[in-house]
Design a protein that fits this description.
mainly alpha; Four Helix Bundle (Hemerythrin (Met), subunit A); two-stranded antiparallel ribbon; 7 helices; 2% strand
Length: 208
Amino acid sequence: MSTPDTVSAHGLVHRDDAGSRLGMWLFLFSELVLFGGMFIVYAVYRSIHPQDFKLAAEELDTMVGTVNTIILLTSSLTVAMSITATAKGQKKLSIGLVGITIILALAFLVNKYFEWSHKFEHGIYPGSPELLNKSQGEILYFGLYYVMTGLHALHVIIGMTILAFLMVFLARGSVHRDSYVKLEAGALYWHLVDVIWIFLFPLFYLLH
């Protein structure tokens, strides 16, 4: 997020928007390193157990993953539109678009909840007897599936919290057409959440 405004000896307000944006990009890079490491682990294990990974992937519902992908792509559009609306001074529209983004994020989580619940009902969860009876490769696949999609879901929740605060800032006028770097930072974080899912979707749902 942007650094707080500072007041000089002459009473002028100074904002380091460039520094705030740079700080946000550095933070996003650290997040990419985290998930990048997991993607490498996934690639290594998949190369070792290619058939087991393909077999395990058949347990996932591609349609569910596709719907969630559409949801997140749409949410990226709405949060980007909120920045444009803010820049044009359209306060109510910007607040509404951020609200729609939060609703789409909630829809993603609800969809993910039912997907996980379905797997649990079939006894496919970490440490379950059903999963432990499967091959080593399938166990690794579902271990990575729960860790990576679970961590991504956590980022979705964090993103929703950030967007909720931004709605308050917009309503109070602390984020407006002349100062919306906070909204830009929040949108960048949300785009990161979407980009990560764009990689998770094919890895777990499409590569059969």
